[in-house]
Structures are given as structure tokens and as C-alpha cells.
Specification:
427 residues; Rossmann fold; N-(1-d-carboxylethyl)-l-norvaline Dehydrogenase, domain 2; 19 helices; 48% helix; globular; Glycerol-3-phosphate dehydrogenase [NAD(+)]; NAD binding; EC 1.1.1.8
């Protein structure tokens, strides 16, 4: 079928309701005759309808198929299914955002599957059953309705079955095991996005989580990072985020449509490693900010730590990946995420308690007591960053990163967080 003239195409797009806007022109063609009937003469509309209607062969006779039925079947066949792999605090908020949009955007299936690592609640009820019965994650995001089209599923294979878009949002230390379970069960045309802040450190060097997903599962993987404290987004307070993509801008825009709401603004940036490293490294700086708060060193000291931290984030990222762009650090995933995490995130909160105890209470103990099952990322990331720095002989260039890890393992007291400034490395 020949493409409609450019002017006609533009007119038809202007007539489409917003819910149909994401559908490519060739997908939307079957419904255009319905729109034309209100613009052009009835005879022209009928003529166009009959010329577009597909035909069926039956007993040697050509029968025109009902155009409305065809449009409905064609649309259903091409709807995109979304699965969220992870159901913690941030994973539940991601499911809420996505579920509100799959109902609104006709190119997506309404139902959003959310894989849940099954747990038994104190009441004896399974977490999955509680989520589906209450329409909320009663353990990790209590009091927030996720959307009736969110379905919790404890079976990972079943949760991802048939999905076209996978959203990974679990603690980064679990991702290698999850990927191994999914090998051979994901088609190559599936698109993925990682909301995970962290990285794997192997003998050959650091491996970003998006790279791990791509290499293990053979699929493209974007990333989403930003100044996103989950509980605030759950309450629909205004926030921003950044989608990092490699080459396909159209895929990035599809992720933008899937996550964006009036209170959650998403911007695409062609810099996967830069966006992902910002989201990963800011947790290390947030640990340092927590030490400053616990020792009551004041806002001037905290601002200095944040500035030095941003400097080391940028230097580390560009030394690992020359493709990282300077401009990425001024996106939501960069300086904005650093600020909000150092002011209010869980890493800052637990590090403050660690410093108040003089380093006598371990991070594991504090995590179990303060986070109700959620996981810290900053401590494990600090260890992984330290391993990279040590292996490559870069420790002297990153005194803040090195000091955070040494405090976390008890080699230095929390007060050492400001003593690193005596060293003046040339990056």
C-alpha cells in the first residue's frame, strides 16, 4: 500500500486522540477511515475505507473483512507487554508509574507484571498474595496503590513470558543470578532498561549492569537514573529522571513515554555509561555525606564533600569510558541525583547512624534494623570502586572514594572523611 501524502499524514496525526499518538502511521491506518468520515465527504470516506479493508478468500470468493474487527485484532496483536523485574521500594514505584501509562497508551497492554521475590509476612500471608489482594506492596511501599492492572508474580519465568519490554530494578548484587535464570528465555527483539545502581567487578574489570544484561541475554538495554527518592515519587511529588541510550533514539522515546507522567519528567541522553555511572557512584558520595551528618560537621563541610565527590565521579567515569559526556553530569542523573541522595537517601541515613556510633555498629546490623529488608548500595559499590582503583593503580587520584571504603570496613574512623583533603591529587 502506498504511503499517504505527507500533508494528509500530518492532518491525520493532528486528528488522532493523544492516546493513539505513539502508534506508527502504518499501524494506525485501519482507523483513519473512521476519522476521515468526520472531515471529508461520506463518499470519499467510504471509498478510502473499502480500498484499505483487507480481504479474505473463502470458497473461491473474495469477502471484505469488517474493518473495525481488523483494526481491533491488528492493534491487539501489536500491543507491547511490560514486565517489571523487582518489587522493592523503587521497583514498586516504577510499576505504579508504568501501570498508569499502559492504561492511557493504546500501544501497550494494560496489564503490568511485576516479579516478586517471594517472602512470608509476619501474618503468615505470602507477599505476592498480599500485593494482589491489597493492590499495594504492604512491605516495601505501604499505603500506596499500585494500579489495579499491576499483577505480582513470584514465578520469574512466567512473569517475563511474552513480555516485549523488561524493566530491571533489583539490588545490583542479585542481577548476575537473575540473568543466568533468564538465559535462553528472552527473545532478541525484547528491549530492556535498568534502574539498577551498581556494577559488577570481575577479573577483567568493571562491568556495568546494563552491559551484563545485554551480554547475558543478548538484548539491547537502556538505563534510567535520576534524582528519584522513591517514596516522594510514590506520593506524586514533582521529580525528573534521565534515560540513557546507545544508538536507537526511537527506543529511548518509547521508554520516555512509558515512564513520563505530569509529576515525573523523563529526558533521553545518548550516553548509557555516563548516566549509569552517575547513578552508581553518587551512592558512595552519599555515604560520605552521611558521615559528615553523623559527626555534625555542618553544611559547609557537606557541600565540600559533595563537590569533591562530583569531581571524582566525573573523573572516574571518563577514565573508564572515554565516551562519557561532560554534559551528562548536569542532567537529573548527575548533579541533581547527587544532591538529593546526599540530602535524603537511605545511604546517607544509614551512614549517619554508623558515624554516630563511632563505627562500632556494622553497616549490616544498621541495614537490617533501619531498612526493613531494603538493601544499601553505597557500601558494596564503594568496595567495588576501591577494587577497580586498586587494580588499576588509581587510588591516589580518588582520595574520597578510597576513604569511604576504608571507613566502611573499619580501617579508618568516620572522622577521616575530611582528612583526605590533605592529599591533593592531580586528576
Amino acid at each position: 500500500m502506498a504511503s499517504p501524502p505527507r500533508r494528509l499524514s500530518s492532518l491525520l496525526y493532528s486528528l488522532l486522540p493523544s492516546s493513539l499518538a505513539p502508534i506508527p502511521l502504518f499501524h494506525a491506518l485501519p482507523i483513519y477511515p473512521l476519522l476521515l468520515s468526520s472531515v471529508f465527504s461520506p463518499s470519499l470516506s467510504r471509498s478510502l475505507s473499502s480500498s484499505m479493508a483487507p480481504e479474505l478468500q473463502q470458497d473461491g470468493e473474495t469477502l471484505p473483512q469488517n474493518n473495525n474487527t481488523y483494526a481491533s485484532d491488528h492493534e491487539a496483536l501489536h500491543k507491547t507487554k511490560v514486565t517489571v523485574v523487582g518489587s522493592g521500594n523503587w521497583g514498586s514505584v516504577a510499576a505504579k508509574l508504568i501501570a498508569s501509562n499502559t492504561l492511557r497508551l493504546s500501544s501497550f497492554h494494560d496489564e503490568v507484571r511485576m516479579w516478586v521475590f517471594e517472602e512470608t509476612l509476619p501474618s503468615g500471608e505470602k507477599l505476592t498474595d498480599a500485593i494482589n489482594r491489597n493492590n499495594e506492596n504492604v512491605k516495601y511501599l505501604p499505603g500506596i496503590k499500585l494500579g489495579k492492572n499491576v499483577v505480582a508474580d513470584p514465578d520469574l519465568d512466567n512473569a517475563v513470558n511474552g513480555a516485549n519490554m523488561l524493566v530491571f530494578v533489583t539490588p545490583h548484587q542479585f542481577m548476575e543470578g537473575i540473568c543466568k535464570r533468564l538465559v535462553g528465555k528472552i527473545k532478541g527483539d525484547v528491549e530492556a532498561i535498568s534502574l539498577i545502581k551498581g556494577m559488577e567487578v570481575k577479573m577483567e574489570g568493571p562491568c556495568m549492569i546494563s552491559t551484563l544484561i545485554s551480554e547475558q541475554l543478548g538484548i539491547n538495554c537502556c538505563v534510567l537514573m535520576g534524582a528519584n527518592i522513591a517514596n516522594e515519587i510514590a506520593l506524586e511529588k514533582f521529580s525528573e529522571a534521565t534515560v540513557g541510550y546507545r544508538e536507537n533514539r526511537a527506543i529511548a522515546e518509547k521508554w520516555v513515554h512509558l515512564f513520563s507522567t505530569p509529576y515525573f519528567i523523563v529526558t533521553p541522553v545518548q550516553d548509557v555509561e555516563g548516566v549509569e555511572l552517575c547513578g552508581t557512584l553518587k551512592n558512595v558520595v552519599a555515604i560520605a555525606a552521611g558521615f559528615v551528618d553523623g559527626l555534625e560537621m555542618g553544611n559547609n563541610t557537606k557541600a565540600a564533600i559533595m563537590r569533591i565527590g562530583l569531581r571524582e565521579m566525573k573523573a572516574f567515569s571518563k577514565m573508564l569510558f572515554s565516551s562519557v559526556k561532560d554534559s551528562t553530569f548536569f542532567e537529573s542523573c548527575g548533579v541533581a541525583d547527587l544532591i538529593t541522595t546526599c540530602l535524603g537517601g537511605r545511604n546517607r541515613k544509614v551512614a549517619e547512624a554508623f558515624a554516630r556510633s563511632g563505627g562500632k555498629r556494622s553497616f549490616d546490623e544498621l541495614e537490617a534494623e533501619m531498612l526493613q529488608g531494603q538493601k544499601l548500595q553505597g557500601v558494596s559499590t564503594a568496595k567495588e570502586v576501591y577494587e577497580v582503583l586498586s587494580h588499576r593503580g588509581w587510588l591516589e587520584f580518588f582520595p574520597l572514594f578510597a576513604t569511604v571504603h576504608e571507613i566502611c570496613i573499619g580501617s579508618l574512623p568516620p572522622s577521616a572523611i575530611v582528612e583526605h583533603s590533605e592529599r591533593k591529587p592531580e586528576l
